[in-house]
Amino acid sequence: MEIISENKCFGGAQGVYKHASNATQCDMTFAVFMPAQAKQTPVPVLWYLSGLTCTHENAMTKAFAQGFAAEHGLALVFPDTSPRGDDIANHDEYDLGQGAGFYVNATQKPWAPHFQMWDYVTDELPALVANEFNVRGDANGITGHSMGGHGALTIAMTLPDRYQSVSAFAPIANPTTSDWGRKQFSAYLGDDETTWVAHDASILMRDHGFHSPVLIDQGLGDNFLDLLKPQSLNDAMAARGQAGEYRMQDGYDHSYYFVQSFMEDHIKHHAALLS
Ligand SMILES: N[C@@H](CCC(=O)N[C@@H](CS)C(=O)NCC(=O)O)C(=O)O
């Protein structure tokens, strides 16, 4: 692992690192915030998965998470959203290819050789972080924004023993019925839609749910509401009797101004379940 930068931040450290990934067969950059508490004792980890067009950097600089994570003694990990490189498959549109990995393992050409973001985020990066940082392997929470909210919810519901807490900001909530989902799943996973259901939060919620309360915030001024489909997941939570809240926030759009407005609540939610 190569250190790109490390800066003191809220008494802890905000770092950016690079490593050669086996899962994605390319160099991957990620960011980690370590709170001061980690100098004494291993700390729980909150994974933050970002949305379309983002790198490790967007949430690191705009989500305002570090101050609250410092207060509650949580490490934060910000992975990138896809493999990257000139030799790696890409697409002209912003919502497919580099910057749009959708947290799945691609099975289709030309994506399959590098677009293995499910394995990267759930296996390879956790092992690396556990090796390199003073974190508790048995205390993981996961959250994310938009495409990253989709990743957080689907990963948590699929691996409930690994994650003790989950939340999301404006998640893509029913991708098998949305152009933010159908387009990417057919490219990455192929036309057999039975392979898509494992990556749809509304379906996973209806069939499995999650073992601890789920916190979701959604801005009502979000210009992507038609693509995000919060109603489907809200209905699935109600049908399941899922503990938690889907909070509709008046006037907020899809931007990081929305994310940073509710970050404190999300950090508190995870800290309560992880400590
Ligand atoms: N670029 C797209 C929108 C993509 C978008 O809103 N991305 C969100 C996540 S889905 C984001 O966080 N963008 C980066 C940023 O705001 O820093 C468009 O023009 O429609």
Automatic annotation (TrEMBL):
<dbReference type="GO" id="GO:0016787">
    <property type="term" value="F:hydrolase activity"/>
</dbReference>
<keyword id="KW-0719">Serine esterase</keyword>
<keyword id="KW-0378">Hydrolase</keyword>
<dbReference type="Pfam" id="PF00756">
    <property type="entry name" value="Esterase"/>
</dbReference>
<dbReference type="InterPro" id="IPR029058">
    <property type="entry name" value="AB_hydrolase_fold"/>
</dbReference>
<dbReference type="InterPro" id="IPR014186">
    <property type="entry name" value="S-formylglutathione_hydrol"/>
</dbReference>
<comment type="function">
    <text>Serine hydrolase involved in the detoxification of formaldehyde.</text>
</comment>
<dbReference type="InterPro" id="IPR000801">
    <property type="entry name" value="Esterase-like"/>
</dbReference>
<comment type="similarity">
    <text>Belongs to the esterase D family.</text>
</comment>
<protein>
    <recommendedName>
        <fullName>S-formylglutathione hydrolase</fullName>
        <ecNumber>3.1.2.12</ecNumber>
    </recommendedName>
</protein>
